[in-house]
């Protein structure tokens, strides 16, 4: 059944025509889109294909992304228009920066980086909380052709160290700390520890003292001192005396940033984004998908450490000349479940983009949306959701309450922008709850079975793949390994990019994303590798074997649950062991893993060849029907597991 939940707006060229042109007349389509941004030298070709798995976009074009996000709007007379609103629900701070203000700060900070030896192609790690400086640092790197790699604040020092070792930055930009509800998170001890753990590429750390932004009296422990290897600079001092830097011309294909994401192994993959394809795709997406223009306010309630933050807090809204919001706070508890509606009302937000978990959190606290009634959210034209599956129940709840279209759209760190969506700027299509709607122009989707044969029957699940080449804006490769890109994504199904997601298309061409086909799980919209969690659990001396699975969680969609067996002869208190394992994950991965669920078993269910029956374990824990696999080593282990996770009620 197709539910029409909004007005149907059709441009002279409807969605089907635009999508068809983006595939059949790929070069013309994207060269026309390239006209949305300013080039130093405009590209004469869109796609350059050296082989089916080796291609680039706008290869002969040159540009600067920060110029496109800032300078050109100022030069066009829009310098006084608000570029960035900073709203901290944690401190009450509210700051508005016009395009001119933001340009001034970015140019100065680019000067700071340059004075510290950072040049074109050099990497800079940005480890900052949700403060305007995160946007400034990213754009400053882009301005001088340096490559930023933002690391989310909820990761532990060892995860930061892994990224330092892979990206080999010369400079880290950080702050004294971040604020989480009820606690201050000191960043500097984490940075210091990461430097100790890593191989020593960093010569300078630039530190933003939060007290200089909001007078925050939070006590961030740790006051590092210069040593022979690393200099610690104060951001404010350095910025005050800096010589502003002009934008540096880079090749379209030069890397703009590296963003690490979880794969199936413990080693995160550094997704490389280019300059030209990224700027074109994101600028196009603001109108094509979100229907946002220069006079609009766009709010992605995410974090700059994730791809949503990169694309839709920082780059896309600014490339489009719109106003973006950097919000430091949570959907609930800062101070209440009306926090999001308050921000929408205060700044007349036109489009809000967040993760379904945030909506479920609001629903849990405010099921009747009483808080919504206290705020004027009439400016909102649409709510976009992504990052994890939007269950139909949550869709209906928020759709009924908000009275504006609710759009589920699907994408990945790798693609950098939506693969499937309801393209509201082209044509608003009917909504189908549970579906992420239709392929966005540029993306040609197919469903393949495990042998790579196309599944054409509507409704039949399979591997979701994207026919090569991927459109502009999608990943160029994986940092440090040309082969890693091909091996990880392009080999399983020749001619296609394997998304790692499974699902189906219906008879109308709507996509339903049902889950992952690999060991990646999604906790509150954050992607985690079960492999890396398992690596951490097996560090404990008492653990013999373990399996970490994503089990259903009513709030966060999934949560990581660890099933462990003990080494023969280990006598340990189970509560103590659980606490130690939880702490190990916190120490090695970080609080973001939100790992609390440990089950200690006598044996793990396995096949006769020794493979752990993960799917069956998950089905038992989630209370789903399951079949006893014919290859099982000992079916009695399943009964014991079922009893362990669902003990019979005691009177
Ligand atoms: N820096 C340091 N620590 C952080 C952090 C950051 N930037 N972000 C989260 N953490 C910590 C939290 O403080 C928490 O620590 P704790 O275990 O000591 O309490 C832990 O990481 C887990 O945080 P979170 O996932 O935020 O769970 P929560 O239970 O604190 O909050 C929600 C629940 C629903 C409010 C929260 O998950 C949320 O806002 N989700 C929205 C998801 C989202 O925006 N995803 C972005 C992808 S588009
Ligand atoms: P990330 O790279 O962290 O953005 O996570 C990407 C993964 O999140 C995808 O591969 C999907 O598994 C999942 N995901 C993102 N958006 C959606 C969505 N709208 N519906 C279902 N799953 C989604």
From TrEMBL:
It is an enzyme of class 6 (ligase). PROSITE patterns: AMP_BINDING. The keyword Cell wall biogenesis/degradation does not apply. Residues 15-69 form the Acetyl-coenzyme A synthetase N-terminal domain. One of its GO terms (molecular function) is propionate-CoA ligase activity. InterPro entries: ACAS_N (IPR032387), AMP-bd_C (IPR025110), AMP-bd_C_sf (IPR045851), AMP-binding_CS (IPR020845), AMP-dep_synth/lig_dom (IPR000873), ANL_N_sf (IPR042099). Its EC number is 6.2.1.17. Keywords: Ligase. Transmembrane segments: none annotated. Residues 533-611 form the AMP-binding enzyme C-terminal domain. It comes from the Bacteria. Pfam families: ACAS_N (PF16177), AMP-binding (PF00501), AMP-binding_C (PF13193). Residues 75-469 form the AMP-dependent synthetase/ligase domain. Belongs to the ATP-dependent AMP-binding enzyme family. This is Propionyl-CoA synthetase. The gene is prpE.
């Amino acid at each position: 059944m197709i539910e029409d939940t909004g007005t149907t707006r059709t441009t002279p060229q409807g969605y089907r025509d635009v999508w068809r042109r983006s595939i059949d007349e790929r070069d013309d389509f994207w060269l026309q889109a390239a006209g949305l941004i300013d080039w130093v030298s405009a590209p004469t070709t869109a796609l350059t294909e050296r082989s089916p798995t080796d291609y680039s976009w706008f290869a002969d074009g040159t540009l600067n992304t920060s110029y496109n996000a800032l300078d050109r709007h100022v030069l066009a007379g829009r310098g006084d228009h608000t570029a960035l609103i900073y709203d901290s629900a944690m401190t009450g701070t509210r700051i508005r920066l016009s395009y001119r203000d933001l340009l001034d700060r970015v140019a100065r900070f680019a000067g700071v980086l340059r004075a510290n030896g950072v040049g074109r192609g050099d990497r800079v790690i940005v480890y900052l909380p949700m403060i305007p400086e995160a946007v400034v640092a990213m754009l400053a790197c882009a301005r001088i052709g340096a490559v930023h790699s933002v690391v989310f604040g909820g990761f532990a020092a060892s995860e930061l160290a892994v990224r330092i070792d892979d990206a080999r930055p010369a400079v880290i930009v950080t702050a004294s700390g971040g604020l989480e509800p009820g606690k201050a998170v000191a960043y500097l001890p984490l940075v210091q520890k990461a430097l100790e753990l890593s191989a020593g590429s960093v010569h300078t750390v630039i530190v933003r003292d939060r007290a200089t932004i909001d007078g925050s009296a939070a006590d961030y422990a740790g006051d590092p001192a210069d040593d022979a290897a690393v200099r610690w600079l104060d951001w404010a001092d350095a910025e005050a005396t800096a010589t502003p830097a002009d934008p540096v011309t880079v090749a379209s294909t030069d890397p703009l940033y590296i963003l690490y994401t979880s794969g199936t192994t413990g080693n995160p993959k550094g997704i490389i984004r280019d300059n030209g394809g990224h700027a074109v795709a994101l600028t196009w997406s603001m109108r094509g998908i979100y229907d946002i223009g220069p006079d609009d306010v766009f709010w992605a309630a995410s974090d700059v450490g994730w791809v949503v933050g990169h694309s839709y807090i920082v780059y896309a809204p600014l490339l489009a000349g719109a106003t973006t919001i950097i919000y430091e706070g949570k959907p609930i508890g800062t101070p209440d479940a009306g926090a999001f509606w308050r921000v929408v009302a205060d700044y007349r937000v036109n489009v809000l983009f967040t993760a379904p978990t945030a909506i479920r959190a609001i629903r849990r606290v405010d099921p009747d949306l009483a808080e919504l009634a206290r705020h004027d959210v009439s400016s909102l034209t649409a709510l976009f959701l992504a990052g994890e599956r939007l269950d139909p129940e949550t869709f209906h709840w928020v759709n009924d309450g908000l009275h504006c279209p609710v759009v589920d759209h699907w994408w990945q760190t790798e693609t950098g922008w939506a693969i499937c969506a309801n393209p509201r700027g082209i044509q608003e299509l009917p909504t189908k709850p549970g579906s992420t709607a239709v392929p966005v122009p540029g993306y040609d989707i197919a469903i393949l079975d495990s042998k790579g044969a196309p599944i054409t029957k509507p409704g039949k699940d399979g591997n979701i793949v994207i026919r090569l080449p991927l459109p502009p804006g999608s990943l160029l490769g994986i940092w440090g390994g040309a082969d890693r890109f091909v091996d990880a994504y392009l080999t399983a199904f020749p001619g296609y990019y394997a998304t790692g997601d499974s699902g189906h298309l219906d008879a109308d061409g709507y996509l339903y994303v049902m889950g992952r086909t690999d060991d990646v799980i999604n906790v509150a919209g954050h992607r985690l590798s079960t492999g890396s969690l398992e690596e951490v659990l097996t560090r404990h001396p008492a653990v013999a074997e373990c399996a970490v699975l994503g089990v259903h969680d009513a709030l966060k969609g999934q949560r990581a649950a660890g099933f462990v067996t003990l080494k023969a002869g280990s006598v340990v208190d189970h509560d103590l062991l659980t606490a130690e394992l939880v702490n190990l994950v916190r120490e090695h991965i970080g609080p973001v893993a939100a790992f609390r669920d440990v089950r200690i078993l006598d044996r793990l269910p396995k096949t006769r060849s020794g493979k752990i029956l993960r799917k069956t374990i998950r089905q038992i824990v989630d209370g789903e029907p399951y079949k006893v696999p014919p290859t099982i080593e000992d079916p009695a282990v399943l009964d014991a597991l079922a009893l362990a996770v669902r003990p019979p009620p005691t009177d």
